[in-house]
Amino acid sequence: MDQLPKHDIANPALAAEGVRRIEWADRCMPVLRQVRERFAEHRPFAGVRFAACMHVTTETANLMRTLHAGGAEIALCASNPLSTQDDVTAALVHEYGISVFARTGVDRDTYYQHINSALDIQPDYVFDDGCDLVNTLHTSRTELIENIKAGCEETTTGVQRLRQMSRDGALRFPMVAVNDTDTKHMFDNRYGTGQSSMDAIMRATNVLFAGRTVVVAGFGYCGQGLAERAAGLGAQVIVTEIDATKALDALMQGYRVMPMRDAAPLGDIFITVTSNSGVLRPEHFETMKDGAILANAGHFDVEVDVVGLEKMAVEKRTGIRHRTDEYVLPSGRRLLLVAEGRLVNLGAAEGHPAAVMDMSFSDQALTAEWLIGSHTDLSPGVHEVPSEIDKEVARLKLAAEGVSIDVLTDDQQAYLSGWQHGS
Question: Binding site membership for substrate: which residues?
Answer without folding.
Answer: 57, 129, 154, 184, 188
